């Protein structure tokens, strides 16, 4: 409805317009959100650790990231003679591009989505998994023992936690009867999935924290042990690619958590007519993305709180927790949910 002026255009022009403009808008929203998330994390960490955080550059330190970005992009791009130059350059590009492509199937509101495919969540998991390949490539191409160890940790962590991550959302598929993210949100209009599947939410949250290498599961980098892990040899613009890609991946997982368990763009009690009216018509195009992004911001704040609270686990604890704890629990949750649905239906 925002682009009614295109109706008078030729068909090829309309197709070109709708192929480019939504993608540009999505990238603008995601990149702006990442800038705000970096500032949000630093300020929130400052509060949690009883210090000020960024407060000198711009009002409330809002321009600190821009200053950091200028500094990063103007640094010398150092490349060791031993590195595999092609793979070394490809790794941050894969990290950045896979993190952005995942947003193609994330709805900001009803019909506010770039590609509403039926198996959207599988597409998202597949694309998000490409970040692991970037970690392997970066570790191999760097010709550095710390990078290799970081990459090996990243692979072990990804293999261990992607299984329970996918298993943890199977009960949501069983309840919704769909793999489409928009359908899963529409099904939660009156009652969010968190009340039906609290265990699945807890398991998903733990696994997504490991999937995006956030503390206490930041073992592929772990500065105190491996310098900076798989990205030790990176500097300048290439390091910026890893930095931005990891933040976008974290935001993506928080957005997915919102869609699967907390009603996506719906306010609480959206089955009541007065509240439901806020989600329809012209006002819905404004309210829905705001509600969705507010929830995503909230859950990102929770991950920062966890980062400030918990120490890093060891690699043995991490792998043991996944194989002996999370995977059996996710399988048990699938079995119990299937049994309850069979009895009720």
Stretches where pLDDT falls below 50 for ≥5 residues? none
Structural class: mainly alpha
Considering DSSP H and I runs of 4 or more, what fraction of the residues is helical?
55-70%
Strand content: under 5%
- Figure out the total of helices: 13
The best one-word shape is globular
**What's the gyration radius in Å?**
21 Å
Q: Mean pLDDT, nearest integer?
A: 83
Main sheet overview: none
End-to-end separation:
40 Å
Overview features:
345 residues; mainly alpha; 13 helices; 67% helix
What does this entry look like structurally?
The protein is 67% helix and 0% strand. The protein has helices at 11-48, 64-73, 85-101, 120-141, 145-168, 170-176, 181-186, 198-211, 223-226, 236-261, 273-276, 281-309, 315-344. The protein starts with 10 loop residues before the first helix and ends with a helix.
List the helices and strands and how they pair.
Layout: H1 11-48, H2 64-73, H3 85-101, H4 120-141, H5 145-168, H6 170-176, H7 181-186, H8 198-211, H9 223-226, H10 236-261, H11 273-276, H12 281-309, H13 315-344
Helix pairs in contact: 1-10, 1-12, 2-10, 3-4, 3-10, 4-5, 5-8, 5-13, 6-13, 8-10, 8-13, 10-12
């Amino acid at each position: 409805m925002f682009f009614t002026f295109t109706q008078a255009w030729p068909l090829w022009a309309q197709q070109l317009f709708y192929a480019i403009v939504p993608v540009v808008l999505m990238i603008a929203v995601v990149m702006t959100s990442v800038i705000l998330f970096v500032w949000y994390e630093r300020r929130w960490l400052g509060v949690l650790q009883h210090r000020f955080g960024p407060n000198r550059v711009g009002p409330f330190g809002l321009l600190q990231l821009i200053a950091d970005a200028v500094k990063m992009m103007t640094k010398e791009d150092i490349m060791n003679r031993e590195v595999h130059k092609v793979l070394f350059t490809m790794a941050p590009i894969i990290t950045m591009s896979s993190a952005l492509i995942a947003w193609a199937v994330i709805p900001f509101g009803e019909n506010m989505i770039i590609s509403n495919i039926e198996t959207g969540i599988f597409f998202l998991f597949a694309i998000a998994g490409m970040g692991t390949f970037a970690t392997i490539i970066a570790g191999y191409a760097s010709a550095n023992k710390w990078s290799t160890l970081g990459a090996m940790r990243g692979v072990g962590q990804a293999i261990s936690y992607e299984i329970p991550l996918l298993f943890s959302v199977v009960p949501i598929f069983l309840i919704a009867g769909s793999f489409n993210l928009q359908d899963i949100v529409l099904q939660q209009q009156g009652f969010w999935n968190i009340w039906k599947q609290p265990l699945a939410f807890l398991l998903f949250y733990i696994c997504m924290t490991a999937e995006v290498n956030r503390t206490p599961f930041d073992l592929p980098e772990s500065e105190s042990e491996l310098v900076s892990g798989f990205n030790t040899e990176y500097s300048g613009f290439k390091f910026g690619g890893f930095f931005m890609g990891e933040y976008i991946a974290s935001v993506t997982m928080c957005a997915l958590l919102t869609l699967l368990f907390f009603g996506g763009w719906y306010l609480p009690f959206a089955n009541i007519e007065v509240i439901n009216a806020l989600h329809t018509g012209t006002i819905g195009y404004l309210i829905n993305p705001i509600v969705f992004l507010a929830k995503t911001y909230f859950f990102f704040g929770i991950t920062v709180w966890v980062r400030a609270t918990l120490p890093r686990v060891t690699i043995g604890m991490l792998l043991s927790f996944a194989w002996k704890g999370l995977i059996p629990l996710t399988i048990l949750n699938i079995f119990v949910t299937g049994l309850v649905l069979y009895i009720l239906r």
